[in-house]
């Protein structure tokens, strides 16, 4: 049985760890996700990958593009189970308009950060993000390594 981390959210389905490494997250929002039945079953089994996904805007709607939800083997055969289906996000009109305006004018992008359960519904934390340069990524790695070494030293002195 796999161990859970101490700080891990028990309602969390998937976390996009690469997002915080590749982007500066300026703002986060919570959005609902419109899913089919087989997708919800796959999410309960943890069969999702958010790594290469992002949010696109089309016809005054927001869509999650590139998220891979692998169908279960026991999924129904009479439905078309497309694992890379573009899934609509459930946001208010003013939120969509504001995000779309920021993406168009500031050169930012909207990326998924985390997928989780909230009151029996699937929610997606999305972030308004700006890309990091290579030297920013190096600084992030350096800081992470220093924090890890600091924790080791503190553990040894106890």
Automatic annotation (TrEMBL):
This protein's GO CC annotations: cytosol
Pfam families from the UniProt entry: SmpB
Gene3D superfamilies cross-referenced by the UniProt entry: 2.40.280.10
GO BP, one annotated term: trans-translation
Domain of life: Bacteria
One MF annotation (Gene Ontology) recorded for this entry: RNA binding
HAMAP family according to UniProt: SmpB
Function description: Required for rescue of stalled ribosomes mediated by trans-translation. Binds to transfer-messenger RNA (tmRNA), required for stable association of tmRNA with ribosomes. tmRNA and SmpB together mimic tRNA shape, replacing the anticodon stem-loop with SmpB. tmRNA is encoded by the ssrA gene; the 2 termini fold to resemble tRNA(Ala) and it encodes a 'tag peptide', a short internal open reading frame. During trans-translation Ala-aminoacylated tmRNA acts like a tRNA, entering the A-site of stalled ribosomes, displacing the stalled mRNA.
Homology family: Belongs to the SmpB family.
Protein name: SsrA-binding protein
UniProt lineage: Bacteria, Pseudomonadati, Pseudomonadota, Gammaproteobacteria, Thiotrichales
